[in-house]
Amino acid sequence: MAEKTYLQAISEGLRQQMRHDKRVFLIGEDIGVYGGAFKVTLGFQEEFGPWRVIDAPLSETAIVGGSTGAAIMGLRPVAEMQFSDFISCAYDHLVTIAAKQRWRAGTAIPIVVRLPSGGGFSGGPFHSQNPESTFAHIPGLKVVCPATPEDAKGLIIAAIEDPNPVLFFEHKHLYRRIKGEVPDERYVTPIGEARIHQEGDEITVITWGAMVHTAAEAAAELPDLSIEIIDLRTILPWDKEAVLASVRKTSKALVLHEDTRTGGFGGEIAATIAEEVFEHLDAPVRRVTAPDSPVPFAPVLEKAFIPQVADVVAALRSLSEY
Amino acid sequence: MATGTSIDVVMPQMGVSVSEGTITKWLKDVGQTIASDEALLEISTDKVDTEVPSPASGVIIEILVPEGETVAVGAVLARIGEAGAAVTPPAAPEPAPAQPAAPAEPIAAPTPPPAEVVPAAPAPVAPSTVPASTHVFVSPVVARIAAEAGIDPTTVPGTGNGGRVTKKDILAFVARGGAAVQAPAAPSVPEPVAPAASMPAAPAAPVPAAPAAVTPTEALPDVAEAEPGETLESMSAMRRGIADHMRRSLDTAAHVTSAIEVDMSRVVALRTELKDAYLRDYGVNPTYLAFIARAVVDTLRDWPWVNGELRGDKIVTRNYVNLGFAVALENGKGLIVPVVKHAEGLNLLGMAKGIADIAERARTKKLTPDDVAGGTFTITNPGGYGTFMGTPVISQPQAGILGTYALVKRPVVVEDALGQDVIAIRPMMNLSLTYDHRLVDGAYAAQFLRDLTHRLQTWTVSDY
């Protein structure tokens, strides 16, 4: 056990899984010689060689298309999008081919697409998005959004071992900001299981990724409220039972995500709560999300765009007083 | 009893914040004819008492709500039919749906010990009371717990927004065996208690009927009993409202009173001069109160916190004055504070008319709730009965209230034209300002009174 950053935990998971399974290889832009835009794969080419850590041309289509083909041929590719925003270039390969191949032809497509996502550093509209809900809408994919170093390591290994295409959203703002104890050995954190980040019995906050930490900070500002924070960890498939059990207990739910509001995954969670545990609700389900806008560059605007601790505190207060 | 040709008379919406009203008097009986807009009944809300006019001409075929009952806005009170329509004798309250013969079935089935006290699906337990027809929002979880425990949720004291019954409230209510408690003064709520607390953990034998004897109809017992020689009567809605408001005001504001003496010679002289002309030309009496109100409005402009409000941690000041006037109803039946809106735009004549208008409508019960809302400062005038000093209670959320007292001729020492002290007979009046010391300091209040006095003592034609 040692304290590691979120970034180091992902890096360690990748390295251990590459040592563990020779079918695993990495492909992406500048991931080899340069070590990756965020240095997640620094030193990997030295250890595993250029055929397992491939610097790809600037073509997300080629990266995901090539990975899909390699997976069909029995390999375990881990593709990196330099920023999750660029996944749109590979949408067709991912959604039309990779997500449907198993259903259509019975062929497993065990690829992982790593997606550095999220804002908070003035990256603007092309380098700050959280497109998880776009892919949560695609049957055949799995979507993972870890919030802690321990989960990031366990889930990257689970994603590589999973026989389906898995989108692995790594929040850039957490890379070096969040540290935590991470077991040294190789381990798997199961996909599809939520984690109770903090127990409470008055309000349930359902969130994932960087917003888990925002929620925890907000809860710390409200010591008189007993707040339960559920870190979903996985968006598809998501852990309905954990959420519903918590809402049955607290009767009040706040869904928090960094993604924009309309069509955000929070809507699906809110709808499910209303459908399944309506008779346990003591207040309307609330959402705190980014507004329906591209991510602004200006720090002031970006701060107004991304849900802040104060926004969550205000929403929790109003739910508590309802 | 429905008929295609009858018209419903409903409890009117008497302003945005009023949700219910009490029938104080039916002015017509079943079978009598009534004209459209003719007064049909009198109602009392927590803000005003008023008459309800008939919505149509015809015959009263049915009266559904007897005098003394309180019903929600929109509730049907009576039905009016065409002349000659069959009438229904004044029925007792709405026939209640046949109550299930005493809930012999215990709430929890006696067979296997209930693993869960709160079943996942709502148990179809018949509520033991007919739900009150109030329009209070009941959340899904509260409705479910109420149904399971056989409680009318409207009998549970609520601590949520607008008095809404929260899940905590009803769980605590159930845990206490359904007994009502005094609402805590602070908005803190009782510790949440699991509903299991009131239920036998694992009944081996069939549970006797109604284990936690929840009898909501007795939940709020009238504990007052008359001793020999005493008489008990129910509080009117207005009296209850006054009681609540007075208590709340004293619990809220830091009341301090300062008083000042005013030489009203000039006002008396001016009034004498204007009175006949005002009465003749406008039909309105320029009362001393109108003069004082005019001077108050001008003085509030210079001392805005007296016309202000503490709202949360903010201080509210205003560029307008909605001036409230405390009006006592006959026989001690209560007090009402109608408001002259935007008094800053009124000259002396306008003020006199405004005061006369609200006073007349207060006497004839023609005020609407909006007439008594929105005041920013209040004047109360108990001086008519000869009192010379008082400490009125501030109308929340205002910051001050001015008391005006008896106008009496008193000997006072004044300076004559040569600078010599002489004793003169002057019409004197005491004014008191009771202010919320949280916002208004003593010096500030004193300066307000000083300026007000100065205005009244130096009144000129241009101040009309």
TrEMBL record, chain A:
It holds the Pfam family Transketolase_C. GO terms for molecular function: oxidoreductase activity. Gene3D superfamilies: 3.40.50.920, 3.40.50.970. Residues 4-177 form the Transketolase-like pyrimidine-binding domain. InterPro entries: THDP-binding (IPR029061), Transketo_C/PFOR_II (IPR009014), Transketolase-like_Pyr-bd (IPR005475), Transketolase_C (IPR033248). Keywords: Oxidoreductase, Thiamine pyrophosphate. Its cofactor is thiamine diphosphate. The keyword Oxidoreductase applies. PANTHER family: PYRUVATE DEHYDROGENASE E1 COMPONENT BETA SUBUNIT (PTHR43257), PYRUVATE DEHYDROGENASE E1 COMPONENT SUBUNIT BETA (PTHR43257:SF2). This is Unannotated protein. It comes from freshwater metagenome.
Automatic annotation (TrEMBL), chain B:
Signal peptide: none annotated. Residues 6-81 form the Lipoyl-binding domain. InterPro entries: 2-oxoA_DH_lipoyl-BS (IPR003016), 2-oxoacid_DH_actylTfrase (IPR001078), 2-oxoacid_DH_E2_comp (IPR050743), Biotin_lipoyl (IPR000089), CAT-like_dom_sf (IPR023213), E3-bd_dom_sf (IPR036625), PSBD (IPR004167), Single_hybrid_motif (IPR011053). One of its GO terms (molecular function) is lipoic acid binding. One of its GO terms (cellular component) is cytoplasm. Its cofactor is (R)-lipoate. Residues 137-174 form the Peripheral subunit-binding (PSBD) domain. Residues 90-100 have a biased composition (Pro residues). Keywords: Acyltransferase, Lipoyl, Transferase. Residues 87-115, 185-210 are annotated as: Disordered. Belongs to the 2-oxoacid dehydrogenase family. This is Unannotated protein. It comes from freshwater metagenome.
